[in-house]
Amino acid sequence: QQFRNALQEMEDDTTNNGYNQIAAFHGQPQWCPSPDAEKKFACCAHGMAVFPHWHRLLTVQGENSLKAHGLSFGLPYWDWTLPITSLPAVVTEAEYTDPETQAVKPNPLYQGS
Question: Is residue 31 within 8 Å of 40, Cβ to Cβ?
Fold first, then answer.
């Protein structure tokens, strides 16, 4: 629940510490080399030699933002080398019941929303 709350706060944050600003480095909107450049491209470094370093920085920025929004533990690790037949319910259900309030809320982990 703490992770969902922190993610929702991060998504609502419109500063440089918010979800949209951090996520933009991963691809969209295209704003590299700068938001004001005439020709822009995605900042994502997939397939490049610098990918491990770039992605680690992106992960750290996301984790630091989540912690600033109330998360008290590190990001969970998804081992992509293991076979998977389906995604976990935490990311496939559009809504969830808040265990503290019993209110049904939109799931911020649902489909990358």
Answer: yes
Pairing type for strands 95-97 and 104-106 reads: antiparallel
| Residues across the chain | 113
Q: Rounded to whole angstroms, how far apart are CA atoms 38 and 30? A: 11
Tell me how far the alpha carbon of residue 18 is from its chain's centroid.
Answer: 10
pLDDT along the chain (113 residues), means of 10: 90 91 74 78 76 84 94 81 83 89 89 57
Provide the 3-class DSSP secondary structure of residue 53: helix
**How far is Cα 52 from Cα 37, in angstroms, rounded to an integer?**
26
C-alpha dihedral, 103 to 104 to 110 to 113, nearest 10°: -70
Look at the pTM and tell me if it is higher than 0.90: no
